[in-house]
Design goal:
heterodimer; A: mainly alpha; MetI-like fold; 2 domains; two-stranded antiparallel ribbon; 16 helices; 2 strands; globular; B: D-Maltodextrin-Binding Protein, domain 2; six-stranded mixed β-sheet; five-stranded mixed β-sheet; 21 helices; about 15% strand
């Protein structure tokens, strides 16, 4: 051991003690009790990830990168334990309710009645979400194959090899590019189309149904149609492009173009959903506000920017979150049908694509688990940032 | 009162969740589950044969379940094994042979059969199966899994283009392809590209075999467990250099698709006559012959193109076999074995061959069709079988046995992709692919070697 577990525990204890002492002082408790509770919580937190890992990252033969990862795990463990403890003790000291306020209506007479009602949901969550998540964490430290004789513990190698792999860094950057392009293009085009479909036209409801249609189509069917359309040789799109403009593009076999084909197909696929919500949102914009704006002499664009756009902000915010989830997690089928294998020069291999390729095709569960954790943390991080920044600017109505 | 009703409902729900589904009434028939990796017309064919079998042997009920792909079938079986829900028969593709062998889940057909020559009244004649197939699936001296859909890689040529360019037969070597393509592309009505192949790892393996070059060490993994790849040899580099040259000259069409789903892009390019030559699997000989009839061109099948400077040794088989699960109830095992024998009898082997283009795996089926005059009317259908029959069986042409084979294929197709699309040196790309593959093998062996 380069760093002894005791040293790490003392470190955790110091951090925890300081945090809790501060919380206790501010909330009017005795700092010394806070110091004690914090020290215990911090020490426990430092061991949270390290005991299952058996402090392997700090073994003498490990690289310095492993130690960095080890420190990150230690700090994350401390944060995971100390944060809820300090939140809880702050609440208790101030004698605040642990639940949200104004929850008096319709409470059960006995607290335990809630349990059977929660049981079905909890059962499903535990079986299909919490347990698999823990299993993913465990697998990420393993070399593991389905149906193999044994598993081998590899510490954090599945993570450190990603840092050393330039191809993975490329994949990360490419995923960001493809995903953000999908979200931005899909949402802005949807808003434009929704604004037009919202105009009082004859047969508007038919247009609206047709616009939502792509969303109802299965990704596999859409993928095959796109593949046959965009196939660079013998495909319909290049046939027409060649006839009309005299150019043929390598939609699927040119590394510079292929990501855009994926973006295009994904945008087309997700637009129906966005249009649906934007039309609903537009219907909720009060007419009198727009009329008042018109009477005051505001032009179309001004009315849109100062009245419609702020009124749509809750929908926009909701759509950003769902579209990001779609772009990061649900484009696998589109990519695999259009550019099977991850595209020319891996130009359409996103993080999610790589996870499925490793886990399902290659049966390399440990590496797939590690990469899925990286993906998970990336998206969680972005969502938190989004809620902290964009979420505050959302205008929830008059 | 209300509370009581509410509580009792909650209680019933909890009990309903906890109880297993009521057992199905006792079965008189022995159920035999067969899992195959197809969902298309090939699955329909298998179900039809199973229905005939069920009628002939009322004591058995064979249920054929279709799956999405060869690659996902393996994961499905591994999960089923963990849960003790294995079927009686599973279809695996040739690349999963080492994985299937290491899994310990299967019983060699030879062991199940013993020295019987008859099972449930059906004659068993292992001598009648085609030799290269038996060679591929004879492991540790034992015939292991029952061949069903066996193919080889062959060439389909649009003779309308070739004739116009002054060629009256399809090119046979790499050098001839180059010469023929030069002529074809110089035509007034030249196709968009001259030739293509699906960027699937199997084609690289075929091109190694025709040069009599090993894919992995230890005699292609047949003398001893393979520990390293051997494809980064002169033969591998020569192949990549040739492909790169063809691509740079604008002869070779590369659709960008890699692996198991790359086939359809080639189908489309060939059927729309945007290319003159398609190097493809014999499994779709029927389809590729029909493409010509429907598109108004003569579609001729011929042997796999080889390196004229090295000569032709032989080709590999491809496709999949049916594996018998170990530890079955004796009655189920007997039924499953009976079904396997029935499934590959002379008539079924001949019909399967005609419907798809996979080779007739029984010599008697080939003879039967020859006598019927089938091959005079369908000359394309003999090519794959002749190619395999003329192959010299060496370690290289017996095919590689290696763990993690599907992952290695992904590495190889990515290497071909890089060679074609960038200026990278083929030898360097191949060396890198070999290093990556060696890690896969090392990790596989670490987890699976006994």
């Amino acid at each position: 051991m380069v760093v002894s577990p005791v040293v790490l525990m003392i470190m955790g204890a110091v951090v925890g003690a300081a945090a809790l002492a501060f919380v206790f002082r501010r909330a009017g408790g005795r700092p010394l009790i806070g110091l004690g509770i914090g020290a215990i919580a911090g020490a426990f937190g430092s061991a949270l990830f390290m005991v299952p890992l058996d402090y392997c990252t700090f073994e003498a033969e490990r690289q310095s990168l492993d130690r960095v990862f080890g420190m990150i795990f230690v700090l994350a463990g401390i944060a995971l334990v100390v944060t809820p403890v300090s939140w809880l003790s702050g609440k208790l000291l101030r004698r605040e309710s642990l639940m949200a306020d104004d929850q008096t209506q319709g409470t059960f007479r006995h607290w335990w009645i809630a349990l059977p009602l929660l049981a079905p949901t909890l059962t499903i969550l535990v079986l299909f979400l919490y347990y698999p998540s823990l299993e993913t964490l465990r697998l990420s430290t393993m070399l593991s194959r389905l149906g193999a004789r044994r598993e081998v513990f590899v510490c954090v190698d599945n993570f450190t090899r990603l840092v050393n792999d330039p191809a993975y860094v490329d994949t990360f950057v490419r995923t960001m590019f493809i995903s953000f392009s999908i979200v931005v293009l899909s949402m802005s085009l949807s808003l434009l189309i929704a604004s037009m479909a919202y105009l009082p036209l004859r047969g508007a409801s038919i247009y609206r149904i047709l616009l939502v249609w792509p969303y109802a189509m299965s990704p596999a069917v859409a993928g095959i149609i796109f593949l046959l359309m965009f196939n660079p040789s013998g495909g319909l799109v290049n046939h027409l492009f060649g006839k009309w403009f005299g150019i043929k593009l390598g939609w699927l076999n040119d590394p510079a173009v292929a990501p855009w084909t994926i973006i295009l197909a994904s945008v087309w696929k997700s637009m129906g959903f966005n249009i649906l919500f934007y039309i609903a949102g537009l219907q909720n914009v009060p007419k009198d506000l727009i009329e008042a704006g018109a009477i005051d002499g505001a032009g179309l664009l001004r009315r849109f920017w100062h009245i419609v756009w702020p009124m749509l902000s809750p929908i926009t915010f909701f759509l950003i979150v769902t579209n990001l989830t779609y772009a990061f997690f649900e484009t696998y089928a589109t990519i695999d049908y259009l550019t099977p294998g991850g595209g020319p020069l891996q130009s359409t291999t996103t993080m999610m694509y790589r996870v499925i390729q490793l886990g399902v095709q290659n049966n390399d569960m440990g590496k797939a688990a590690a990469q899925s954790i990286v993906l998970f943390l990336t998206v969680i991080g972005m969502t938190i940032v989004l809620f902290r920044t964009g979420g505050r600017q959302v205008n929830y109505g008059v | 009162m209300k509370k009581l009703v509410f509580l009792s409902i909650a209680l019933v729900m909890v009990i309903a969740l906890a109880l297993p589904a009521s057992p199905i009434s006792a079965q008189e028939k022995t159920k035999i589950d067969v899992w195959i990796a197809f969902q298309d017309y090939r699955w329909d064919w298998a179900k039809a044969v199973a229905a005939e079998f069920n009628e002939m042997f009322p004591q058995y009920e064979v249920v054929v379940t279709g799956g999405y792909s060869y690659e996902t079938m393996f994961a499905q079986v591994a999960v089923a094994a963990e849960q003790g829900q294995l079927p009686a028969v599973v279809q695996y593709f040739e690349a999963a042979t080492q994985d299937a062998r290491d899994s310990g889940l299967f019983k060699p057909i030879a062991d199940a059969l013993g020295d019987r020559t008859e099972i449930n009244g059906l004659t068993v004649d292992m001598e009648d199966y085609v030799a290269p197939v038996i060679a591929y699936y004879t492991l540790d001296g034992k015939f292991t899994s029952m061949p069903w859909n066996t193919s080889s890689a062959i060439t389909f040529t649009n003779m309308n283009y070739l004739r116009a360019a002054g060629w009256d037969k399809p090119p046979a070597t790499w050098q001839e392809i180059d010469a023929a393509c030069e002529a074809v592309m110089a035509l007034d009505k030249a196709p968009e590209y001259c030739w293509t192949f699906p960027n699937h790892g199997w084609f690289f393996e075929q091109w190694m075999a025709v040069q009599n070059a090993l894919y992995v060490n230890n005699g292609n993994g047949r003398e001893e467990r393979a520990t390293e790849v051997a494809f980064n040899s002169d033969a591998g580099v020569a192949l990549l250099e040739w492909l790169d040259d063809q691509y740079n000259k604008g002869y070779l069409y590369y659709s960008g698709a890699q692996g198991g789903d790359s086939w359809s892009t080639v189908d489309q390019a060939y059927s729309t006559q945007q290319i003159a030559i398609a190097v493809y699997s014999s499994s779709d000989t029927t389809l590729y012959t029909e493409m010509g009839e429907e598109g108004g061109f003569e579609s001729v099948a011929s042997f796999y193109p080889y390196n004229g400077e090295v000569g032709w040794t032989g080709n590999l088989i491809g496709g999949a076999t049916l594996w018998l699960v170990d530890g079955l109830d004796p009655a189920v095992e007997e039924g499953a074995l009976t079904f396997l024998v029935y499934f590959t009898n002379t008539e079924n082997a001949a019909d399967w061959h005609k419907v798809t283009g996979y080779i007739p795996i029984r010599m008697s089926a080939y003879q039967m069709l020859t006598e019927e005059g089938y091959y005079e009317a369908n000359p394309n259908q003999t090519v794959a079988l002749e190619q395999l029959a003329q192959s010299t069986i060496t370690p290289a042409t017996s095919g590689a046995l290696v763990g993690g084979f599907p992952s290695i294929r992904n590495v190889v197709t990515a290497a071909i992709d890089r060679v074609l699309l960038t200026d990278a040196d083929p030898a360097e790309v191949l060396a890198q692919a070999a290093a990556e593959s060696n890690v896969i093998i090392e990790e596989y062996n670490l987890l699976n070697a006994p």
